[in-house]
């Protein structure tokens, strides 16, 4: 058995987890991750070596965008050969979007990339930051015969490890902020750390990592609601350079059958705008044709998002558009599981 410890790179992008509170003034300021082991001595008990790296200017996750996704992907790309696993510290508000995007951008990934964060700053008395950070690093360092056990992009929060592109932030106040209702968690942390091997991605290990950095955000998201007007829909569809409309429909993919609505979508499809159908529901998925109120969408060529989250649908769309797929290939690849994002 090898005595070489796994090397883990901790990447801080910003967010609550990287803040500490001044004991006298109560104000928050950025945590110095160069002093990580001094501030959290428990990390020295982990059987791995940890190095840290931060964005030059850490950002609030509300300001996250595809350019920052590329930065994260490039940091992993440059350091991929040197490190055995990566932990990305990220604000919780857009973490599911970023974890989804990185999962598509990193093709042939064979090492763990674990996203985590916190609801309270790392220096707060009741913080969840320490447990999330310590366990994420521990999971990233798990190996069997010197090969990482986790070989995908994940999100760890409050004792559970999820597939990153399956997650949604569910609560703004509870420590259990995330959930993955359409796919089981990959691991649970309690007295013992239980890895659920049957649910893990098992990629082919003889392919080199390929990093996709071209993303196209000429897309828009429309959540259906009772009373939506034709002028509103037409304004959305007339956005310059629009390539994809992601439609958040009711239930299992249902929508109004008003003639003006369906005609507008039909015209959009004929004008080479992809329309993707995802459900507004937190759990479950789209099954176009199950009801009459969704069969019309299927007939006009709307693409099914199946049981994909909205966050994953947005990220996957930008990724596929960046590859300049043909219309037919785009539909085929979108409805195919690329990184375990759909059943």
From TrEMBL:
Keywords: Hydrolase. PANTHER family: 60 KDA LYSOPHOSPHOLIPASE, L-ASPARAGINASE. Residues 7-197 form the L-asparaginase N-terminal domain. Belongs to the asparaginase 1 family. CDD domains: L-asparaginase_I. GO terms for molecular function: asparaginase activity. GO terms for biological process: aspartate family amino acid metabolic process. The active site is at residue 16. It comes from the Bacteria. InterPro entries: AsnA_fam, Asp/glu_Ase-like_sf, Asparaginase/glutaminase-like, Asparaginase/glutaminase_AS1, Asparaginase_C, L-asparaginase_C, L-asparaginase_I, L-asparaginase_N. Gene3D superfamilies: 3.40.50.40, L-asparaginase, N-terminal domain. Residues 218-331 form the Asparaginase/glutaminase C-terminal domain. Its EC number is 3.5.1.1. NCBIfam families: asnASE_I (TIGR00519). This is asparaginase. It comes from Hyunsoonleella pacifica.
């Amino acid at each position: 058995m090898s005595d070489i410890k796994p090397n883990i790179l901790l990447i801080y992008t910003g967010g609550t987890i990287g803040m500490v509170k001044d004991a006298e003034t109560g104000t928050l300021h950025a945590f110095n991750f160069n002093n990580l082991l001094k501030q959290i001595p428990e990390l020295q008990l982990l059987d791995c070596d940890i190095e840290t790296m931060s964005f030059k200017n850490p950002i609030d996750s509300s300001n996250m965008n595809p350019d920052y996704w590329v930065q994260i992907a490039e940091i992993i790309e440059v350091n991929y050969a040197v490190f055995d696993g990566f932990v990305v510290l990220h604000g919780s508000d857009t973490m599911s979007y970023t974890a989804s995007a990185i999962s598509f951008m990193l093709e042939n990934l064979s090492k763990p990339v674990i996203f985590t964060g916190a609801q309270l700053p790392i220096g707060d008395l009741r913080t969840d930051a320490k447990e999330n950070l310590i366990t994420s690093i521990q999971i990233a360092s798990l190996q069997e015969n010197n090969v990482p056990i986790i070989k995908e992009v994940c999100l760890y929060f409050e004792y559970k490890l999820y597939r990153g592109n399956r997650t949604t932030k569910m609560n703004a106040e509870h420590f259990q902020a995330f959930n993955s209702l359409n796919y089981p968690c990959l691991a649970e942390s309690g007295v013992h750390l239980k890895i659920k091997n049957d649910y893990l991605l098992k990629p082919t290990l003889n392919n080199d990592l390929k990093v996709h950095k071209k993303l196209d955000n000429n897309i828009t998201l429309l959540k259906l609601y009772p009373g939506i007007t034709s002028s509103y829909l037409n304004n959305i569809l007339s956005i310059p350079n629009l390539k994809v409309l992601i439609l958040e429909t009711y239930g299992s993919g249902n929508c109004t059958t008003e003639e003006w609505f369906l005609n507008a979508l039909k015209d959009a499809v004929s004008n080479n705008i992809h329309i993707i159908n995802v459900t507004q529901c937190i759990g479950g998925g789209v099954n176009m044709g199950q009801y009459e109120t969704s069969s019309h969408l299927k007939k006009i060529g709307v693409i099914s998002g199946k049981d994909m989250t909205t966050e994953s649908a947005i990220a996957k769309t930008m990724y596929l558009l960046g590859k300049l797929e043909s219309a037919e290939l785009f539909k085929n690849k979108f409805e195919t599981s690329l990184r375990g994002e759909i059943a």
